[in-house]
Specification:
single chain, 447 residues, alpha+beta, Peroxisomal Thiolase, Chain A, domain 1, three-stranded mixed β-sheet, 39% helix, binds acetyl coenzyme *A, hydroxymethylglutaryl-CoA synthase activity, sterol metabolism
Length: 447
Amino acid sequence: QKDVGILAMDIYFPPTCVQQEALENHDAIKGKYTIGLGQDCMAFCTELEDVISMSLTVVTSLLEKYGVDSKQIGRMEVGSGTVIDKSKSIKTFLMQIFKENGNTDIEGVDSRNGCYGGTAALFNCVNWIESNSWDGRYGLVVCTDSAAYAEGPLRPLGGAAAIAMLIGPNAPITFESKYRASHMSHAYDFYKPNLASEYPVIDGKLSQTVYLMALDSCYKRFCERFEKLEGKPFLISEADYFVFHSPYNKLVQKSFARLYFVDFLRNASSVEEVGREKLASFSALSGDESYQSCDLEKASQQVAKQLYDTKVQPTTLLPKQVGNMNTASLYAAFASLIHNTHSSLVGKRIVMFSCGSGITTSMFSLIIQDGQHPFTLSNIATVMNVSDKLKLRHEVPPEKFVEIVKLMEHRYGGKDFVTTKDTSLLSPGTFYLTEVDSMYRRSYAKK
Ligand code: ACO
């Protein structure tokens, strides 16, 4: 098939949010979440919403807004790191949407591994369309997560969202699959071993280090593949934008700085003179030393700042405003780029870095083309309507946020309850949880 890629996208995030500045004041650590972690605001699910309701909302919205008949979907894959049921997939809940039209002929289930499931789902759909098994219909990828963390330093790293992406040929957002590179290994960096709790266990320091090591490894492999096929080296200058998995913005700044440092090590003349001077003293560090060096981190962030502002900053809006959306984070960063620059994206190359703890990572690149209505970049930006969705949010004070989190902790894994059904903050068309019955069966309604 020609130009297989993303035809259409939509995003949903809960209207309830807490400002990071209010939260850090509440926690008496002024500056840490905003300046230290680089975050602005954090969306969260109340008792009315979860990964299933958010994905029901976003899939329904995508089909409606792009005028796609639900019979035209032949494969649907869900990526999520949020566990509601250890067996029944989120995908099976989404089949309710297709029931009306009688379409039960849809392949695919859920992919789960940290924040990587969405990328696995995306690769599966792209591969399906490029394969002999393809039946001519669209693929649909759904990334849905509600990231909630225990009280303490991790709490500001939460977030929640669902993203749907329609996959098919002749797409405006196409894959350069030949350069795609992965790095997968075993690490106890972030995991969810306590099945009675929604919260992960995180080794913060290790988590940052393995993220940067995997980034290095993927980037080097990606560069090698590019050079082999294109006959010229890949350097940062070959791409217009870099989109990273974004648990918090400071890590994104560090990641881009790391690529700058790798470029400097591979080809010093490719970076500016000031960069060469500032980084020269770090060139003899071993790999391990370089991951631990705060001085290198600071110096490389400083010299990469100008390039960061043009090649990364336009991707940071939603991750900073919504928080860590786990599987949806990378694609929300990409959605931010479309929102900010859709009118000037045609012909541009975008490098994406997907990272799930455990650890599973891939780097791949996209090329933007004109597309045909309704599958154009400007229509995707219109449908996603990021500005209005951000404007319509309801800010909750930290005290209220803590109260809601306590209720959610109590409800996690529970049965035999009904929700308030107070949908006053939800936009029309939003799905919400109404009840979990005595057999743990979940019911949803649409506002
Ligand atoms: N004002 C301004 N800046 C501050 C302040 C303050 N009051 N306090 C701290 N900072 C800065 C620090 O200097 C540091 O900046 P730096 O990294 O540029 O040096 C930053 O804020 C974080 O401060 P730490 O002291 O390192 O904070 P802590 O030890 O509490 O750890 C965190 C922070 C984010 C919890 C980290 O340890 C962690 O766990 N990270 C990994 C978690 C994660 O989500 N990983 C992603 C894996 S994949 C996934 O998405 C699940």
